[in-house]
Write a structure and sequence with these properties.
The complex is a heterodimer of chains A (280) and B (327). Chain A has 280 residues and is mainly α. Helices cover 76% and strands 0% of the residues of chain A. Chain A contains ten helices and no strands. In chain A, helix 2 packs antiparallel against helix 7, helix 4 packs across helix 5 and helix 7 packs antiparallel against helix 10. Chain B has 327 residues and is mostly helical. Chain B contains 14 helices and two strands. In chain B, strands 1-2 form a two-stranded antiparallel sheet. The radius of gyration of chain B is 24 Å and the shape is globular. The chains are: A mainly alpha (280), B mainly alpha (327).
């Protein structure tokens, strides 16, 4: 019962194609990472973390103001977005389970998750920048918080749903009110999964550029004020990479290097955390 | 998720203490408020984009979508070129990403040695983790020159004079243009389609596949006649998800598309996309009409991605409902 040669050929072709497709996907990953790390490592200088972004044509300088601005905005976005996301996720999985509102919000949340981030930038331009009359780090942090929110909502909902109902019932049997069951049993059981989701969100917003273009904008000088344009790594990379100046392009590569390393480390950390959660 | 289908009433033997009930209500209110916020944000985006773009829509009417002149000096804005560029680059992205992603999913569920599956899957997922600005820099400094030196000359030599499709591949090989942007977009959406496809492929019940094998099917025939029909709605959902991503992707495209406002048939020529036009021009928009036109572009992009992503979500839900799959 030999398989006819045409069918066998189709089989082999399909499998060769699948293998080639995987190689195709991996090649880009390694090419992009290799490029970024090589060019970036070349451009690393001791002044990178010590000096401000230089004016065009001036050699040296660093990205200190940009690193600071990015860190502040990510932190603020985290403070705003993470609790809201956990609360909304709790509603979807627990307090509003099986309600119409929960199913609508769950649907909408998935759309926000993939919505173009440039639109989020425009939204906060209209909402914050225009009424205030100037670009600000605060508007940038809000835009980042909005990118973070749906990620945290989704992972919180998923991790709470994985907790067996017997845990909830055990809490109720002890006479605990629902909010204490959620807080003291469910959040504890789901902690590592929820933290994983938040870390994933941080990795995502660390590299977001489009929402910051019209909110935080950029600032060539040291500024700690959230009420003024705030330098940040992604927008500096974008401006410097598109510029015709060699020194600026070098700094852009250095910034890209740091950004890529941070994002990769966060992603690998998340996977390790997730694996540890599974083993237990 | 059968275990969690229990109704609320079964789960909550309400405690008698009144203080507990009050705190419960507060907690319920807080979480419900956060859930409402998600909804309000989405509606808020739609309203604010429509409101911000009203001046452009009032001034140009349908010509805003059909007009091809984007003339800042004359305050005349027609968005045909960015709309066209967005659609063409996204189409190229899907032409590349769909077969490749399904190939990757097949490789990871059927071909790869078991020990290598998790690391390869993680590597493919990392493609989605790389920030789009990194794709953009790589695209501008490495991939576009590569295209200009090796791929585009070949394309215009061999296909440039072909009938019908020749027009798509004529023009100078400058590296920056719709083809390059489409390929970069394709690479960026591969992980999104591949991860959903892999997940649903491995959710196909083993007895179904085994019976096909028992009837004498080759593995390719199992994929074509069992796995793909079984997972069809989810795979279509994944493709729409990828399309939604491709349509709205901004930074990578901005780097390699060239920000040109001319309509050209050739894929090798620079063009523009909705997201790239907004990113490039918004901070320079100095008149109300100019700014409003860019926000109107944002409104169009939002409406289109909303529809595409809704279809994606519905198709994915349909697969869940049909087969009672969880996730």
């Amino acid at each position: 019962m030999a398989i006819p040669i045409r069918r066998r050929a189709a089989d082999i072709t399909a499998f060769a194609f699948a293998t080639a497709a995987t190689a195709f996907g991996l090649v880009w990953l390694f090419w992009i990472l290799w490029t970024t790390l090589m060019h970036g490592a070349e451009a690393l200088t001791p002044t990178l973390f010590k000096e401000m972004t230089p004016p065009p044509g001036v050699p040296g300088g660093g990205l200190l103001n940009a690193f600071y601005g990015s860190a502040v905005m990510i932190l603020l976005a985290l403070i705003i977005g993470a609790p809201l996301g956990v609360a909304a996720g709790t509603f979807l999985a627990e307090h509003g389970r099986n309600t119409r509102l929960a199913s609508v919000v769950s649907f909408v949340n998935d759309i926000l998750l993939s919505a173009p981030s440039i639109i989020v930038g425009l939204f906060f331009y209209e909402l914050v920048v225009r009424p205030m009359g100037h670009f600000s780090g605060f508007a940038g942090a809000l835009a980042l918080a909005m990118i973070l929110l749906p990620i945290v909502v989704r992972t919180t909902e998923e991790s709470l749903r994985l907790i067996p109902d017997t845990m909830r019932e055990a809490g109720f049997a002890l006479g605990l009110p629902r909010w204490r069951v959620t807080r003291q049993i469910l959040y504890k059981a789901g902690l590592s999964a929820i933290l994983t989701g938040i870390l994933l969100g941080v990795a995502r917003i660390a590299g977001e550029t489009a929402p910051l273009l019209f909110t935080a904008l950029n600032n060539q000088f040291w500024s700690a004020s959230l009420n003024a344009p705030l330098a940040n790594v992604p927008v500096v990379i974008w401006q410097f990479a598109m510029s015709p100046y060699d020194d600026w392009q070098k700094l852009a590569w250095a910034g890209a290097f740091v950004l890529t390393v941070v994002v990769l480390v966060l992603n690998i950390l998340v996977r390790l955390l997730a694996r540890k959660g599974k083993q237990r | 998720m059968n275990a969690t289908l229990a109704q609320d009433s079964e789960l909550v033997p309400v405690p008698a203490q009144r203080s507990g009930a009050g705190a419960d209500r507060l907690f319920q209110l807080i979480t419900a408020g956060a859930a409402w916020l998600v909804l309000i944000l989405l509606v808020g985006i739609a309203v604010s984009m429509a409101w911000g773009g009203r001046l452009a829509f009032q001034t140009f009417g349908w010509h805003f979508i059909t007009g091809k002149d984007w003339d800042v000096g004359a305050s005349k804005f027609g968005a045909l070129v960015p709309i066209y560029g967005t659609l063409v680059t996204s189409a190229i992205a899907l032409i590349i990403a769909v077969p490749v992603s399904i190939g990757i999913a097949l490789f990871l569920t059927d071909i790869a040695p078991r020990w290598s599956r998790a690391p390869i899957a993680i590597a493919i997922e990392l493609l989605a983790a790389i920030p789009s600005i990194i794709y953009g820099m790589w695209g501008l400094f490495l991939f576009a020159p590569f295209m200009a030196a090796h791929v585009e000359p070949w394309l215009s030599d061999h296909l440039g004079n072909a009938p019908i499709i020749g027009a798509l591949f004529s023009g100078p090989p400058i590296g920056i243009g719709m083809l390059t942007a489409g390929i970069v977009l394709g690479i960026m959406v591969i992980p999104f389609i591949a991860s959903v496809a892999r997940e649903v492929f491995s959710a196909v019940p083993a007895p179904l596949r085994e019976s096909a094998v028992a009837l004498g099917s080759t593995r390719w025939e199992v994929l074509r006649n069992v796995t793909l029909p079984y997972t069809r709605s989810a795979v279509i959902g994944a493709i729409f998800l990828g399309l939604g991503r491709a349509l709205g992707e901004t930074m990578a495209v901005t780097f390699v598309l060239g920000n040109a406002h001319d309509l050209s048939a050739s894929l090798l020529m620079p063009s523009n996309s909705i997201a790239a036009a907004i990113a490039n021009e918004f901070t320079e928009a100095d008149t109300d009409l100019y700014r409003s036109s860019l926000i109107a572009l944002g409104f169009l992009l939002f409406v289109v991605t909303f529809i595409v992503l809704s279809i994606a979500k519905l198709m994915l839900l349909r697969m869940n409902r049909q087969y009672g799959r969880t996730s």
